[in-house]
């Protein structure tokens, strides 16, 4: 079955709905019924879902059946006109369903619910202005660097606002990380239905999208929105220099043939990603190894692992996806683990969405929107308290608070269950750092069952060195024909290797050193009209959603461009004091979170122990702060 956008029939026959109703997730169905009928009595306390099992209710089969039956009977009179159902939520219904879903009155959820419910036919956060309306004859132009999730998002908003723009992409296709990472079993570990732009939802075939499908999604998004014709493919921006006379940027570019060119633009939107410069540890003897050495993001599809001895270095999100595939055919796989990952039980990780449920999404108007809402709103609220340090607890590398300890116990139970009678394995797979100090990886049992295979060995020692024939760890030599690096990315090296020169020739990387920081992850003083998408401190651990953050960033950047247009300014430069206050806040808030407190290795922290990656506040803070540019925070010229 293909991914579909669905062709909704104007009317729906009750018998057709009844035939498929058992496939419906009751939380989505109940909220849909409340919306369509305006009868919120269907939001019964006893049918409130378990937040941990969403989109499933977590109720007994009997309770689910009773809920479905009532929904069917309440919906029946409305089915013949399902095409007329309102696509926005009435405020009182929105409040009722949000409180019901979250299990309590949650002011943040009520605010976020305004943007968490979206249908495919509307794009409420699209700019409601055009450059031509505000500043006819304006010479403002923009250039987006990168065509991943963030670059395409920014490009769409520019197009909607009628801002002339170009996109520069170093690869030969769109997709960014989803173009580059093609290792076996590569997929997202964010549920597909919320790993999409809010206004372009699909009827995904799997709960967690495979790399090829996500790539198709992004390509189709770019094609359908007329973005592809704006892209210069195979061109890399090597240097960006701000010209104070013209208040514009000169971008130096190099194409795949080595041709160098210059491109002038008023506004730069850097959307170059965080996870695209592979990190291969500089291990002693690495060059002496005689076999192939491959990083997960530079996969060699010609490699045949059949009957080979393979060394896998790293046990992060990528290795946990490719190593099980390699182990199916290799004669021996030795996995070198420096620190064990926390795993979250996710049985549907590799499963298809059942056909009946996909039928519901295609045929029952707005079922998909409520399905998405049921997972999206709780995700935006997240569980930051479980990642917050309680100085009185007292925090240790075991747990940093009672809530963090509760999370630890929940995750530990799963690992213990996975290890079964393998006590040796149990000791190896339970991490020695607090949960949420680094990414918690979704797992459906594949990882530990791979570790239990006869041809797999887990070595819990850091790699010491490499020689011609294999890997040394724990003073032992392990033979290998191939070494696979699941060692992640140079995430803290924001914007490198691009050189960026702002006011007075100031070099961005000299200014930053290794401490990349930008106001709201987007702007910084001395670099007028230079904005980042997915910039420093805009990632989330257990308290948000990446695509939501990208939509917020695009919103903020477009608001900045609107400010330029409205004031007739050529450039805007963030005030130093605004940046300094923000930067202090990020540092102090990060120190309160598990990832900022723990001493464990992670790409969330840079070499000096500063958190440059993660947003340390609740997601709603990001939403609020990016809602609109405050012109007073900038010097306009
Ligand atoms: P990663 O999470 O940074 O994991 C790198 C692994 O390599 C860790 O186990 C790390 O050990 C180990 N390592 C690094 N340097 C080492 C060294 N010198 N010696 C021994 N081991 C070393 O990288 P990743 O797995 O590629 O994932 C990066 C991020 O990409 C993920 O966190 C996620 O955000 C994203 N991603 C997502 C998905 C998905 O959605 N499913 C899939 C892949 C990647 P330590 O833990 O001890 O540092």
Describe the structure in your own words.
This protein is α/β, with parallel strands linked by helices. The chain has 3 domains: 128 residues, no CATH class; 280 residues, FAD/NAD(P)-binding domain (3-Layer(bba) Sandwich); 156 residues, FAD/NAD(P)-binding domain. Helices cover 33% and strands 14% of the residues. It has 20 helices and 21 strands. The strands form 6 sheets. The chain has a 5-stranded parallel β-sheet, covered by helices on one side. A hairpin with a 2-residue loop joins strand 15 and strand 16. Helix 7 packs parallel to helix 17. The chain is globular and about 75 Å long. The relative contact order is 0.13. The N terminus is likely disordered.
Keywords:
FAD/NAD(P)-binding domain, five-stranded parallel beta sheet, 3 domains, globular, 637 residues, single chain, alpha/beta, disordered N terminus, 20 helices
């Amino acid at each position: 079955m293909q991914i579909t956008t669905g062709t909704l029939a104007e009317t729906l026959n009750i018998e057709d709905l009844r035939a498929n109703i058992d496939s419906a997730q009751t939380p989505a169905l109940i909220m849909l019924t409340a919306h369509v009928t305006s009868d919120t009595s269907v939001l019964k306390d006893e049918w409130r879902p378990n937040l941990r099992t969403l989109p499933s209710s977590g109720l007994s089969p009997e309770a689910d059946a009773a809920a479905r039956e009532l929904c069917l009977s309440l919906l029946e009179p409305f089915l013949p006109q399902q095409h007329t159902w309102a696509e926005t939520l009435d405020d009182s219904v929105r409040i009722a369903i949000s409180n019901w879903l979250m299990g309590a009155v949650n002011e943040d959820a009520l605010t976020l619910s305004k943007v968490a419910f979206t249908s495919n036919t509307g794009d409420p956060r699209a700019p409601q202005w055009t450059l031509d309306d505000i500043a006819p004859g304006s010479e403002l132009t923009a250039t987006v660097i990168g065509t991943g999730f963030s670059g395409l998002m920014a490009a769409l908003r520019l197009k909607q606002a009628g801002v002339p723009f170009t996109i520069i992409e170093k690869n030969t296709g769109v997709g960014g990380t989803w173009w580059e990472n093609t290792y076996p079993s590569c997929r997202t570990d964010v549920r597909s239905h919320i790993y999409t732009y809010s206004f372009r939802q699909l009827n995904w075939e799997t709960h967690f999208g495979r790399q090829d499908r996500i790539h198709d999604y992004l390509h189709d998004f770019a094609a359908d929105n007329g973005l592809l014709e704006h892209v210069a493919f195979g061109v890399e921006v090597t240097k960006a220099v701000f010209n104070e006379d013209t208040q514009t940027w000169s971008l130096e570019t190099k194409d795949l043939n080595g041709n160098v060119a210059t491109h002038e633009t008023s506004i730069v939107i850097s959307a170059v990603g965080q996870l695209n410069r592979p990190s291969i540890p500089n291990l002693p003897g690495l060059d002496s190894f005689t076999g192939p050495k491959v990083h997960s993001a530079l996969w060699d599809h010609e490699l045949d692992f059949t009957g080979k001895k393979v060394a896998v270095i790293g046990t992060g999100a990528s290795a946990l996806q490719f190593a099980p595939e390699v182990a199916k055919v290799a004669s021996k796989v030795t996995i070198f683990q420096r620190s064990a990952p926390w795993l979250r039980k996710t049985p549907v990780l590799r499963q298809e969405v059942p056909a009946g449920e996909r039928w519901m999404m295609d045929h029952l108007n707005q079922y998909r929107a409520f399905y998405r809402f049921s997972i999206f709103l709780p995700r935006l609220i997240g569980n930051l308290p479980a990642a917050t340090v309680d100085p009185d607890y007292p925090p240790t590398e075991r747990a940093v608070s009672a809530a963090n300890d509760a999370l630890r116990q929940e995750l530990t139970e799963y690992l213990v269950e996975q290890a079964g009678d393998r006590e040796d394995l149990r000791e190896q797979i339970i991490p020695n750092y607090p949960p949420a100090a680094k990414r918690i990886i979704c797992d459906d049992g594949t990882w530990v069952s791979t570790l239990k295979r006869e041809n797999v060995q887990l070595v819990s020692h850091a790699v010491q060195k490499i020689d011609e024939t294999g890997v040394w760890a724990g003073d032992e030599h392990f033979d290998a024909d191939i070494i696979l690096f699941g060692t992640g990315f140079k995430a803290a090296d924001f914007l490198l290797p691009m050189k960026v020169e702002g006011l007075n020739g100031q070099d961005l990387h000299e200014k930053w050193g290794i401490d990349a920081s930008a106001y709201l992850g987007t702007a910084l003083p001395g670099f007028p009209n230079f904005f980042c998408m997915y910039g420093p401190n805009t990632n989330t651990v257990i308290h948000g959603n990446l695509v939501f953050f990208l939509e917020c960033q695009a919103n903020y950047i477009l608001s900045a461009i609107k400010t330029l247009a409205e004031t007739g300014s050529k450039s805007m430069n963030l005030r130093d004091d605004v940046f300094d206050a923000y930067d202090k806040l990020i540092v102090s808030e990060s120190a309160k979170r598990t990832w900022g407190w723990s001493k464990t290795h992670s790409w969330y922290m840079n070499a000096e122990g500063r958190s440059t990656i993660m947003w340390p506040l609740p997601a709603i803070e990001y939403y609020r702060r990016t809602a609109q540019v405050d012109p007073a925070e900038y010097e306009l010229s």
